[in-house]
Amino acid sequence: MTPSADLWAGVDRFIDRVSSPELASAHLIGPLVARRWRQQGRPLPAVLARDERRAMLSTVTAPALLRRLRDCVEGPMMIFKGPEIAARYPDGARIFGDLDVLVLDAPAAQRDLRAAGFSEIPDPEGIYVDLHHLTPLRDPSIPLLAVEVHSAPKWPYDLKPPSASELFEAAVPSICGVPGVLAPSPEHHALLLAAHGWEHEPLRFVRDVLDVAIAKEEVDAVELSRLARDWQIAEIWEINRAAADALFKDGRRPRAMRIWARHLIDTRERTVLENHLERWFSGLWGLPLQAALRQSGRRIARDLRPAFDETWPAKLRRTFQALLHAFSPRSKYDELLGPAAEKGQRRNASRRELDV
User: Fold this and answer.
1) Is residue 78 scored above 60 in pLDDT?
2) CA nearest 155: which of 193, 189, 128?
């Protein structure tokens, strides 16, 4: 099913309000903005031209890599996110840097791919141990895109993800057109996109919200809400749905977009204050109450303590700087801190909450 003309008209209206090509690129909608500007006869700055090329190369490369994967891996194989959602964008105007592949036996698939010449990326810190996917792989003959072999979808930390067998039971042929490659059912895919984006960082990029807006056009709203309740992500689904309607259909802004997700409206970066508010309290919008309280408590306690190799005086200096620059973009604050910024990032990064 192709997303409606009404949705793309709303996306065009949103793009027409974007003033900065750099911020459009940061929100991962550079290829869409480039496409719109070309239609309007506007010259493309280098950052948009670069994003346009990346999207084109990813779209062209993905089918060949998928065929290679299908030839190397035994048993059912499912692709989600990446090229599966990019195929629903006009002219494939979506950047993706890897293929997320779900299989029933991830270790066996990883071994098959390594035997076929794929190589694992270096992981000296062990961040891919006990994760929802194994260490990413690259094919030397098609190096542009990485491959992540999943045993389960990325899911909110305190909740149980749907099983691979449940997803395969409802799977459909992939829109990418490679024989033998499956995709989640439309209902499953919509919720997988919402949950994946939420666990990375809730309402992080405009592109993440647009993915959800596209996916929800293919499904019955009542059935989707029922499934979201069954999977315990009803709140996550609802806030993603509301954010998509607010950005692209002039719907009412959810409260989160008036507190810690205001950056989406102006297509800008989160401020230092918004970053902390999201980390500490976003779970109250998206998770069941007990899970939300556990997450908030864990994150607040982690932020209030010094990092692993940081003294209390250094921690207090960093906290004072955060208060002084509460309304500055996070990247500018990190530049000001210099090497000290890595202290907080290491404090905030447990393996289960890494952006991988």
Assistant:
1) yes
2) 193
